[in-house]
Amino acid sequence: MKRETLNFFESVYNVVNLIPFGRVTSYGAIANYLGAKRSARLVGYAMNSSHEKDVPAHRVVNRKGLLTGKHHFAGTNLMQQLLESEGILVINNQIQDLDTVFWDPIKEL
Prior knowledge:
With about 110 residues, the protein is mainly alpha-helical. It has one domain: Arc Repressor Mutant, subunit A (Orthogonal Bundle). The protein contains six helices and four strands; from the N terminus they run αβααβαββαα. The protein has helices spanning about 5-15, 25-35, 40-50, 80-85, 100, 105-109, and strands spanning about 25, 60, 90, 95. Strands 1-2 form a two-stranded parallel sheet. It has a two-stranded antiparallel ribbon with strand order 3-4. β3 (about 90) and β4 (about 95) form a beta hairpin. α1 (about 5-15) packs across α3 and α2 packs across α3 (about 40-50). The longest helix is centred in the first third of the chain and has 14 residues, at about 5-15. It is globular.
């Protein structure tokens, strides 16, 4: 992997570590915060590679609140279980009341 990509991944992990308990953000919101507005997919790749890192990857969802990264977690419903343990309601793999629990790093940091 290129050094620039690794540095971007580390920047993504730094932002993900700031997501408050009981809140979620999107791949695109992280990319936008990092000045790479069109790099939501690269943020997703970072999340896919985060399992050996200590980051709350379960708090990152797609722009519609769908748990698109759930298949990267051990167990069938681990991502949903982690979110629900933080008080976030998930129905049919989608965050409910997304506007209420959404954390935008541009507005919050």
